[in-house]
Amino acid sequence: MSAVDAELIEMMSAVFAAHREKYPPGEGIVELWGRLDELGLVRLTGSEESGGSGAGWAEAVELLRAAAWHGVKIPLAEHDLLACWLLETAGLAVDEARRTACLLDDQGVARAVPWAAEAQRVVLLWRDGPGHRVADVETASLAVTASLNNAGEPRDAVSADLASLSGTPVTDDVVAQFTRRAALVRAVQVCAALDRILALSVAHAGERTQFGRPLAKFQAVQHLVADIAAESALARAATDGALAEALRSDWSSPHLDFLVAVARSCVGHATSVVVRNAHQVHGAIGTTREHRLHEFTMPALSWRSEYGSVAHWDETLTGYATTAGADGLWALVTATGT
């Protein structure tokens, strides 16, 4: 991905840091949304013609990383990278309403939809005969059952009457890209949370003393932290690789689905190691609500299972490997196959 201006990254981080100094996790979202809107960050990747900022995924990724790093819960990805992108792709108008998006099943139901109950509109995507349609619908006109994930973020059930919907046709490629984008969004967010967990673990090991010396001096603790660093780096490398291929090919690479599966599998398994080791490094204090560790471990565990569970992505990779066979495995891994 292209480099992002350092001052822009610093400004993003400062906005979220200031918000967290004033509000606990999950609160003050309306105020923060207004501030981000003033700065042109709510629709960062939207076209300027439709009222967006005209930036790209590189900037959006840094925005998501900054929010996750500071433990801020806000539907930026759902609004900009999924819902508003779908509207623009379908040639539909985009206004200032806060949105989320979901893919309905054949009964018109979508489960664990991020932020649906708190959104003003929901962009619906559903199968209609041989193709798909998309519609921008007021949340009040839908049946929404509020719920939360384990990190305390809204993950709601949405039900719509498919017979009463009149949407705009979109190609199957749009649907495929929607699922890829959603999967990579969560990978980016998990990687940012893992990076913050690493930073917290390094700081704690250096500051906390036991038997008269810092925890960082104990070889067992060093091994725990080293594993956190290695797994975080692996997850980030796999995610960045998938993102780079997505942007290079405008989300059309024949290898992209495989790379997304690699990223999500690596991220999912890395989270297990990072969370386990971080809690071992922190000990009992890491399990308290007063300590900030849970603000990053719980989202990481929740996000890794959204838009496809770890088992789902592992099974997907298994399918690619068995299809390629022994003779085609190296070409698959190095993305040189046809």
TrEMBL record:
Gene3D superfamilies according to UniProt: Acyl-CoA dehydrogenase/oxidase, N-terminal domain (1.10.540.10), Butyryl-CoA Dehydrogenase, subunit A, domain 3 (1.20.140.10)
Location of the Acyl-CoA dehydrogenase/oxidase C-terminal domain: 183-301
Pfam hit, one: Acyl-CoA_dh_1
Family annotation (InterPro entries): AcylCo_DH-like_C, AcylCo_DH/oxidase_C, AcylCoA_DH/ox_N_sf, AcylCoA_DH/oxidase_NM_dom_sf
A GO MF term: flavin adenine dinucleotide binding
Coiled coil start-end: none
Entry keyword set: FAD, Flavoprotein, Oxidoreductase
Cofactor names: FAD
Family in the record: Belongs to the acyl-CoA dehydrogenase family.
Designated name of the protein: Acyl-CoA dehydrogenase
Natural source organism: Mycolicibacterium neworleansense
